[in-house]
Each structure stands twice: as C-alpha cells, then as structure tokens.
Design goal:
Structural class: alpha/beta
Shape: globular
CATH superfamily of the largest domain: Metal-dependent hydrolases
Strand content: 15-25%
Helix content: 25-40%
CATH class of the largest domain: Alpha Beta
Radius of gyration: 26 Å
C-alpha cells in the first residue's frame, strides 16, 4: 500500500463556505496571476498557470539556440562525480558542448545565456521498462483479468493509438526524455520511427513481440505482442523476423509452469539468445523466480527486466551477474499498481494525480461494477500474491545493489495501474524505501537506464557530445528524491520546454490541490487554483454568489479564521472531461452536525472557471 493520499479524502465544500461567510456577487478581479505564481514557467506540483496559457502545437514549437549556456546552477552530471556548484552547461544545438564550474567554462559572447542560479541540473530521466501496447487501464490486459464482455479489447488498443501524442507529452512533462519499450507488436517499430521525428516525444528504443514459453491468444488482434515459441526453430524464426526491423533489444518471456516441459523451454530460451547475439542484439528476459533468473543469466541474458520475487537472491546468481555484466531492473511499482486497482484501492502520488491519463484512471473505478463473482475471486487471489511478493522484491533489490550489480530504473508502465510517465517517480520512491541512496536511485534512472537503451548510449550523463536532454529543477534531488518532480524546465535535444505548455494538469488534481490548500488554510495557494473571472453559482436558482477570484478572498479569509474545525469528506468523485463532481459530507459547522452537499467544478487549462453548488437544507 502506498503511503500517499487516496482520491477519497477530506475536502472542502464551497456552498457551506459561502453560506457561512455571507457571500455576495462582485466584479471579477483584474486577471493578473495569483501572488507567487509565475504564469510563464511552473515547477511540477506548484500552482497552475493562468487559464490563457497555450499548449505547444506544431506551429509554436521551441527550437534549440545555436549556442546556449545555463549558468549558475548546481549540476549533477550522472557520471558518478560530485555535484558541481555555480556551474555552466554549454549547449550547441542539440548536443552538450561543455559542463563544468563557471571559472573553467568559457561562455562565448554570442551564446544565449540563461541565469539558473539556485536551480539544479540533472540528465533527463529514462524509464528502462515500458509497454506502449498497454494503456494502464482496467481493460488493457484481458489475459490477466478478462473483461472483454464489457469492453472490446480492440477499443482499448484503438484508443491507445489515437492518444499516442498525448502519452508522449506525459512522459516529457514528468521529466522523462527517453524510454525503452521492452516488447510489443510489430507496430512498435513504426512508433519508434514516429517518435524519432518528434520533439514532443521521448527518445524510444524498442523490442518487437516477446518470444514466449506461453501463448496469450487474448492479446492477438492480428499483430500479437506475445508469441509462443514451442521449439528452438520457431524461436529463431521470431528473432529473424525482428532482426529485419533492427530492434534495440530482443525480449524473452520465460515462464515455466509445473506442467511445462522445462527442458524444451530452456532449449527455446537458449536458441533465442544465441540467435539475437548472432545478430548483435542484446536480450532482455522476464524471469522472476530465482531458478529461472539463474538459468537465463547462465545462458547469456543481458538484462533481467524484473525482480526475483520467490526467494532471496543468492551468491551464485550475484557472482554470475557480476561476471556477465547483467543489468537488473526491479520494477517494484507494477506489483503495487495491480494490487491496488484489482483490490479496489488505487492510490496515487501527487505527480500521478496531476499528469496520469484521466481516462485511464477513471477506468479503474469500473471494476466493482463490471466484474463477475468468478473474476472477483481471481482478482482477490492475484492481489494476495502481489502484495506478498513486494517485501522480497525490495530485499532483493537492496542485495543486488549492495553487491555492485548495475540497477536500472524501470516501471513496466502500461500494465494495469502503472501509469505511463508519472509512475517512474513512484518507482524511484520505492527504490529509496528499499534501501538505495537518493544518488544511487538517480543514477539508476539516468546513466544506468541509458545502458538498457543502448550498449553505448549518447544520453544519461551530462558530458561533451551527449544529447542535450536534461532537467532544470527547483530543488536538490540528492537531498530528497521528490525534488525530481519540481521541474522548472525540460530540455530535449537542446529545446527548452515549459512543463505547463506540455500537458494541462488533470481536472481532478486541480480540484484536489485546491482542497488541500483549503485544509491547510493557505489562502493565497487556495485562490491560485481559480481563474481570475471564476463564477460561483448556487443551485437551484442560478444565483451568482461570487464572481471573480479576488471576490472570494474576503469570504475565505473570514472562513479560515472563524471555522478551524470545518471538515468535509468526499463520498464520491466523478470526472468527465473537464467537469469534476464531488458529493460531500460536511461536518464541524456550528449548530449543524452534518450537511450533505455537491459541488460541480469546470476546469480549463489547470484553473477552476466555474463552480455550481447545491446542498440539502
């Protein structure tokens, strides 16, 4: 269970506030941004930008300067060296030209100089394990939980393809400038080509269909992401088909069940590795049991893409991984994602709430209504198993890391409950909780993850000749891993991107953040989530009881001072596009034990533009 807030929490209700404060209509405010808010650039997790902000389009994409210099920040370059204070990062077009202390790096007179004093600069983050053929929604893995009688799997796939540009932006807004798709349909290769032509997309390395010991016909729509190879000959055919597309990796799904022919499975696995290596392509393997992991590393696997979860990692496997240079990707978050959604208790950290796909998150709440008794029983058993595996996975990560094995951060994003983009930040939190230092975790998501992307990467560190993919942060990630969410700029190929112009924050997160500011009695922050010309309307009747953000100030100032015990609990939250409907139970009002109420919020570009309020009198 994540030690973070749930969607069902304590929140405020506007109608009671206005009734208590004696609200009256007045003129809208001047339209200036709320105090303390920079309308041009905002770090992730701060108050939103003004409603007039525009997302990037093909007509207004930023271009890298011929020569630019970021001056004055503390730079952590990902090489393992100590951070550099008062540093200069010199960028020539889309490549890094120099990194070092200000006294040692000459800034040419014609360079665009950008003062970033007080900031931190780190390499762009890399998620080394994702799946683009999965949406993270409830219906995306019918081989895990089969709800095809409720929602056609083909519809899930179609929606995923249509939202691809949005998905790419969700990676960038979370500071992720490169990803590795470790297995999917042959259309993965077309997506790689598409991403390579786009500024507003992470760099993409891909594998084609997983060469598998198991069949997964539920996922086969004509271009299956997983293909069973019952013989070594079939395995070689599948590898050859991918080599023709120049894959970055070949992926094996090595699952040997008790009723399987273990010798045949091992022969298939060895044939796949041999054929891939003959084609000069590395092999990533899903092998989550100690015996299976040991077997695949012995056979030459280059990357273990999941944690060993059935037993402690032993000295034999550690020594073998050291000898072979095997990379270990723990994917801790995916177990929590499945367990929470299938257990009916999804919980999200702040950046997941803000930038996770809202349609995907909304699908999770369907489970109780659409699953049969049989599926509910299967789900419950899966939840039990997944929760039981988590402690062993964390302990094995600590053991592997302390032994000096290269650990790369990856999420398995796309699986049910593991959001594209934002889930990497939860993964990094879990890695810290498992016993890794902040710096070791940051290395896992930069330099080490780049080694999954390519054997000789041109990313993941800030050094001369590397791609100019980096983040400008508002806080020190070596002191607190959550600082990686406080993004001031995302720089991709030398182009400087403003986070608030990549993706609008989710309407539900905007409503939730103003709720939290209310509960903290932080008036300025609370008001910053409202548009300058917001209207507060009482229903029934349509009476405008407040018009304009500044008209709200004296009302809430009085309330925060006079009603310190007011608390409201959400009974239900419904989100439809930009509309958020909260049904609430209000307590702590003088002479009234409780009040049932509802608030309907309209949210545009990260600001609340209209609220309609209704209560049981």
């Amino acid at each position: 269970m994540r030690a973070k807030r749930s969607w069902l929490q304590w929140v405020e209700v506007q109608l009671i506030v206005l009734a208590l404060a004696g609200a009256s209509a007045c003129d809208p405010s001047s339209g200036t941004p709320p105090r303390g808010v920079d309308a041009a650039v905002l770090p992730v997790g701060s108050a939103p930008a003004v409603a007039s902000s525009r997302l990037y389009s093909s007509a207004n994409l930023p271009k890298p300067a011929k020569l630019s210099a970021l001056v004055g920040a503390t730079v952590w370059d990902g090489t393992g060296k100590a951070a550099i204070g008062d540093a200069v990062v010199l960028i020539a077009g889309d490549r890094i030209q120099a990194v070092g202390p200000r006294a040692q790096v000459t800034v040419p007179a014609d360079a665009l100089t950008i003062d970033v004093k007080g900031k931190w600069i780190v390499p762009g983050l890399i998620d080394s394990h994702i799946h683009l053929f999965q949406s993270a929604g409830l219906y995306t893995r019918p081989d895990i939980i089969d709800l095809r009688s409720v929602w056609d799997y083909a519809e899930d796939q179609a929606a995923l393809k249509q939202s691809r540009a949005d998905l790419f932006r969700r990676y960038l807004v979370c500071g992720i400038t490169a990803v590795v798709d470790v297995g999917g349909p042959f259309w993965n290769f077309d997506v790689r080509q598409q991403a390579a032509t786009m500024l507003l997309a992470p760099r993409l390395a891909v594998a084609g269909p997983l060469v598998s010991t198991l069949a997964r016909p539920q996922l086969d729509l004509g271009d299956p992401p997983i293909i069973q190879a019952p013989t070594p000959e079939r395995a070689r055919e599948l590898v050859a088909a991918q080599l023709a597309r120049k894959p970055d990796l070949i992926k094996i799904w090595y699952i040997v069940l008790p009723d399987h022919d273990a010798a045949a499975a091992k022969a298939m696995m060895k044939a796949t590795i041999e054929a891939a290596h003959a084609g000069k392509v590395r092999v990533a393997v899903h092998a989550t049991e100690l015996s299976a992991a040991t077997a695949v590393v012995e056979a030459g696997a280059d990357i273990l893409v999941h944690s060993v979860h059935d037993a402690p990692v032993d000295d034999a496997l550690i020594d073998l991984m050291k000898e072979r240079g095997t990379i270990y990707i723990p994917t801790l978050a995916v177990m929590e994602g499945y367990a929470e959604v299938l257990g009916g208790e999804p919980e999200l950290i702040d950046i997941e709430q803000r930038y996770g796909d809202p349609t995907v998150m909304a699908s999770w709440s369907d489970l109780a209504a659409v699953q049969s008794a049989k599926i509910a029983a299967v789900s419950a058993e899966r939840v039990k198993k997944m929760r039981a595996r988590a402690p062993m996975m964390s302990a094995n990560l600590k053991r592997v890391h302390e032994a000096g094995i290269t650990v790369a951060a990856g999420t398995d994003a796309g699986n049910i409950g593991t959001l594209h983009g934002s889930s990497l930040h939860h993964e990094l939190e879990l890695m810290v909780q498992a016993g890794m230092s902040n710096e070791a975790v940051l290395l896992s998501a930069t330099r080490n993850a780049a080694l999954v992307f390519a054997a000789k990467p041109t990313m993941g560190t800030l050094e001369k000749g590397q791609w100019a993919d980096l983040l400008v942060l508002d806080a020190d990630p070596l002191a607190d891993i959550e600082a990686l969410r406080r993004i001031h700029r995302v720089i991709k190929a030398g182009a400087m991107l403003e986070p608030n112009r990549l993706v609008d924050p989710n309407p539900a997160s905007v409503v939730q953040q103003q709720v939290e500011a209310y509960q903290a009695r932080d008036l300025d922050r609370f008001l910053s989530y409202y548009a300058p010309n917001v209207e507060i309307i009482k229903q029934p009747g349509g009476k405008v009881v407040a018009k304009g953000r500044e008209a709200m100030r004296p009302i809430y100032d009085k309330l925060f001072t006079s009603s310190p015990k007011l608390n409201i609990r959400i009974l239900r939250r419904t989100v439809i596009d930009g509309t958020v409907i909260d049904e609430e139970l209000v307590t702590g009002i003088a002479k009234r034990p409780y009040v049932r109420a509802a608030a309907t919020y309209q949210v545009e570009h990260g600001l609340i533009t209209k609220v309609e309020l209704r209560s049981a009198e």
